[in-house]
Amino acid sequence: MTDETPDTLLPVTERTRHRRLREQGSRSRADLDAILSDGFVCHLGVVVDSAPMVVPTVYGTDGNTVYFHGSVAGRSLLAAPQTTVCLTVTHVDGLVLARSVFEHGLNYRSAMIYGVPRAVTDHEEKLYGLRCLTEHIAAGQWGYARLPSRKELAATALLALPLDEASVKVRTGPPDDGDGPDAGLGLWAGVLPLHTGWGKPEPDPALDEPVPVPPHIARLARRRPHPGQQL
Amino acid sequence: MTDETPDTLLPVTERTRHRRLREQGSRSRADLDAILSDGFVCHLGVVVDSAPMVVPTVYGTDGNTVYFHGSVAGRSLLAAPQTTVCLTVTHVDGLVLARSVFEHGLNYRSAMIYGVPRAVTDHEEKLYGLRCLTEHIAAGQWGYARLPSRKELAATALLALPLDEASVKVRTGPPDDGDGPDAGLGLWAGVLPLHTGWGKPEPDPALDEPVPVPPHIARLARRRPHPGQQL
Predict the structure, then answer these.
(1) How many CB atoms lie within 10 A of CB B179?
(2) pLDDT score at A86
(3) Is the Cβ pair A98, B217 closer than 8 Å?
(4) Closest CA to B188 of A220, A187, A195
(5) Of the candidates A41, A203, A227, which has its C-beta nearest B92's C-beta?
(6) What residues form DSSP beta bridges with A106?
(7) DSSP A62
(8) Is the C-alpha dihedral spanning B34, B36, B41, B44 positive or negative?
(9) For a surface tag, which of A39, A67, A146, A181 has the fewest beta carbons within 10 Å of its beta carbon?
């Protein structure tokens, strides 16, 4: 929570109650929003023939609903859209290197969103959802690239999942064995941070003549670039 | 495939047959090995009360078996270890920014491994599996940190999943609409690469006196550091 707006609490359900590592559980809606805002790839879990299937895919959100492509798990979701899914977004922030192997772990932020996705069929809502998805990933791109034709829109299966039921977990900080008996071992302990950053935009070799990188893409690349990198 | 060793083909099953975006499907065992080698966090899918549950967790592998903690999805896996799981590892390499919204996508490498995990109960095998897990994440740490006590080992639920059934997908390169009618729009198109790198090791503030960062951690941090970063 870095925001000035008052936070709200996520509801607790049988699925989202934190059973394990409760100290890492968060009920903060602001934490959920921040995790979704910081990412654009989720792992979507569906049940196919009684077995789980976990597919990486992009998502976007308007703060109330998560939009994602239904075709990624086509066999299941399109055949039976009234199926519960689990959509998980994870950010790995670092390795927690403790004095004992047992206390090793990760610094991370993750959100698991449960629900029954709804197939978006209305033309206007589909455009709205695809716009959310596109702008969430690369703000400005919806106004720059060619928008979907009616035929492309019809070929796009878009699903909408409400942000009603979510389980959030966050771990930050140093290892937990700094005040235990292992502290006397004299071993180094700490965190090895992991960072993700955009590289320099790579123009399509098929561009016949040089086209400048549009300002919104240059801005996006600058937002979280590698340290020391020049755009 | 960057290796000199001959590649083998992954078997095709009902679950791993590529139905969608077949050009992104790979049957290369070397691709699978490289994806597993490049990562240490997976998204584990299990079925709980007929609904999917997708949990991020760390993994390690010795090339034949993937080891991971059984406690992460405790409710399901420990109660019924004879349950099929889907363990997915994904690397996101960049945004594919096409001329049309419809052609947008990701450059990525992902592996979905299916199977029924086996609970590791034998003392020696549990040590072996935990060593694989630890060394996969931070090579050298098993020989540096305090090893698990009998009590800690008993409290650790370790699962083993064979690398027998896997579906691999890889996308690389520029957008696909460089030779279509949209190429004439004169828009910029290309890839915005995404990189992941280690930051500078952060010592635990609880360290009473300065302890040097052990060489294997300094080496790990140097292996994929942010450009321009000094260790």
Answers:
(1) 8
(2) 95
(3) no
(4) A220
(5) A41
(6) A95
(7) -
(8) positive
(9) A181
Residues of B in contact with A183 (CB under 8 A): 206, 208
Q: Sketch the domain layout of chain B as residue ranges.
A: 22-175, 197-231
Distances, alpha carbon B189 to alpha carbons A203, A217, B98, in Å: 6, 10, 5
CATH fold of B22-175, please?
Answer: Pnp Oxidase; Chain A (2.30.110)
Q: What is d(CA B7, CA B205) in angstroms, rounded to the nearest whole number?
A: 47
Question: What is the residue-wise DSSP string for B151-204?
Answer: HHHHT--EEEEETTEEEEEEE-SS-S-TTSGGGGG----EEEEEEEEE---EE-
pLDDT of res. B71: 77
Q: What is the pLDDT, as a whole number, of residue A72?
A: 67
The secondary element (H helix, E strand) that includes residue B53 is: strand B51-61
Q: Which two tokens stand for residue A188?
A: 């180094």
Contacts of A71 in chain B (CB under 8 A): 20
* pLDDT tens digits, one per residue of B186-200: 999 999 999 999 999
Q: Please list every residue in chain A whose beta carbon sits closer than 8 Å to the beta carbon of residue B138.
A: 95, 97, 192
Q: Topology of A22-174+189-194 in CATH?
A: Pnp Oxidase; Chain A (2.30.110)
User: What pLDDT was estimated at residue A1?
Assistant: 46
Sign of CA dihedral B194, B196, B200, B203: positive
Assign B88 a pLDDT band (cuts: 50, 70, 90).
Answer: very high
**Does the interface ipTM go beyond 0.85?**
yes
Residues of A in contact with B207 (CB under 8 A): 178, 188-190
Contact A178 B114 (CB under 8 A): no
What percent of the residues of chain A are helix, what percent strand, and what percent coil, each to the nearest 5? 25, 35, 40
B88/A43 Cβ within 8 A: yes
B186-to-A210, B26, B98, B179 alpha-carbon distances in Å: 9, 33, 12, 12
Under 8 Å CB pairs connecting chains A and B tally to 310
What share of chain B has pLDDT > 90, as a percent? 71
